[in-house]
């Protein structure tokens, strides 16, 4: 296989991954789970019992129990990128006359990101407890559409406040539940959605900034090498100008680690930017991803033309309108950055 085919396969695989993850991230019943259980079922007759047990146990430990493995993976990947940046790109950039100020931006972003990452991990997302329950019940009112009054959580044995959900991984009910994030090993709920948003945005900024600096460095390297004006003799003895693919190939050969890192950063950047945009949008319309998926299910179940007839007489508000909770983007954002407390509500 020649270089071009390999490169095309690489790009295609990366793009497919981006699309799949963007489409299904956060969904409870995602095709990855389905595919995984399908594959393991098909492979079951050919794999020894102990291997099945070990893989089942590993997957269970990784995704269905609280653990720090994704935090470690995150720190490892980040460490690898920053080591590569510091030991290779930094030096090259200095040679290319990039200012120290712009080269220090990634480190400042790293500090900012680490603070939000830490806060996201350490903040209690808003666990529903017996002691706080009477307060928590009054924060949001039941819409009688997605959340109904008087429903108890069978595991916690507590009445569920509106917008809360039981997290199966952490085994607790969480206020204004958004989702359980394995990367921070915590639920995202009323009290840490703000940190989660800022964390996402700062990781995007970090990846984007390092990618820009690296891209700039590679561009300078290409310009300096004069490759764009170079030409080669093809098999017919004709002189051909070296095209962009030739340049890409040359970069791969000369700076393999840097080009690989750049590819990784671009991948991460687009992935997280999509995710951050989705979460910012949800924040602006006063919805959690839990409600987003729930109301989609509701929409398809109840607003399908055939099902609609049964609901004509019911007193449910207009549920074809997806964001009827919203009281304006600014107020919605305000509620994320200054989460409501039950006591506040009582006083007004
Ligand atoms: C957000 O939605 C909830 C209902 O889910 C509502 O009680 C609350 O007042 C809304 N907040 C804003 C700022 O619109
Ligand atoms: Zn519960
Ligand atoms: Zn959780």
From TrEMBL:
InterPro entries: Palmitoyltrfase_DHHC (IPR001594), PFA4/ZDH16/20/ERF2-like (IPR039859). The keyword Lipoprotein applies. Residues 152-295 form the Palmitoyltransferase DHHC domain. It is an enzyme of class 2 (transferase). Its EC number is 2.3.1.225. GO terms for molecular function: protein-cysteine S-palmitoyltransferase activity. It catalyses: L-cysteinyl-[protein] + hexadecanoyl-CoA = S-hexadecanoyl-L-cysteinyl-[protein] + CoA. Keywords: Acyltransferase, Cell membrane, Endoplasmic reticulum, Golgi apparatus, Lipoprotein, Membrane, Palmitate, Transferase, Transmembrane, Transmembrane helix. It comes from the Eukaryota. It is a multi-pass membrane protein. The keyword Ribosomal protein does not apply. One of its GO terms (cellular component) is plasma membrane. Signal peptide: none annotated. The DHHC domain is required for palmitoyltransferase activity. Belongs to the DHHC palmitoyltransferase family. PANTHER family: PALMITOYLTRANSFERASE ZDHHC4 (PTHR22883:SF466), ZINC FINGER DHHC DOMAIN CONTAINING PROTEIN (PTHR22883). This is Palmitoyltransferase. It comes from Nothobranchius furzeri (Turquoise killifish).
């Amino acid at each position: 296989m020649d270089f071009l085919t390999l490169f095309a396969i690489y790009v295609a695989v990366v793009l497919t991954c981006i699309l799949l993850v963007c489409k299904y991230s956060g969904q409870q019943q995602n095709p990855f789970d389905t595919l995984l259980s399908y594959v393991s079922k098909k492979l079951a007759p050919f794999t020894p019992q102990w291997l099945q047990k070990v893989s089942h146990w590993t997957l269970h430990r990784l995704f269905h129990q609280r653990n720090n493995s994704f935090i470690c993976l995150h720190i490892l990947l980040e460490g690898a990128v920053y080591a590569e940046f510091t030991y290779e790109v930094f030096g090259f950039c200095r040679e290319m006359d990039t200012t120290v100020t712009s080269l220090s931006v990634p480190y400042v972003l790293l500090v900012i990101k680490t603070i939000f990452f830490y806060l996201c991990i350490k903040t209690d997302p808003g666990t529903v407890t017996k002691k706080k329950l009477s307060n928590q019940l009054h924060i949001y009112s039941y819409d009688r559409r997605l959340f109904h009054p008087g429903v108890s959580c069978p595991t916690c044995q507590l009445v569920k406040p509106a917008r809360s959900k039981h997290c199966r991984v952490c085994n607790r009910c969480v206020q204004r539940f958004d989702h359980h994030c394995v990367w921070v090993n915590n639920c995202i709920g009323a009290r840490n959605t703000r940190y989660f948003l800022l964390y996402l945005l700062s990781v995007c900024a970090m990846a984007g900034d390092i990618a820009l600096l690296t891209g700039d460095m590679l561009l300078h390297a290409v310009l300096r090498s004069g490759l764009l004006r170079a030409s080669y003799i093809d098999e017919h003895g004709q002189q051909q100008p070296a095209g962009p693919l030739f340049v890409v190939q040359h970069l791969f050969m000369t700076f393999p680690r840097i080009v690989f890192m750049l590819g990784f950063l671009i991948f991460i950047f687009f992935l997280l930017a999509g995710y951050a945009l989705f979460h910012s949008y949800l924040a602006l319309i006063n919805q959690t991803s839990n409600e987003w998926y729930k109301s989609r299910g509701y929409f398809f179940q109840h607003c399908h033309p055939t099902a609609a007839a049964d609901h004509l007489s019911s007193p449910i508000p207009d549920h074809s309108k997806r964001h009827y909770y919203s009281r304006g983007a600014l107020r919605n954002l305000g509620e994320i950055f200054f989460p409501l407390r039950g006591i506040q509500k009582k006083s007004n």
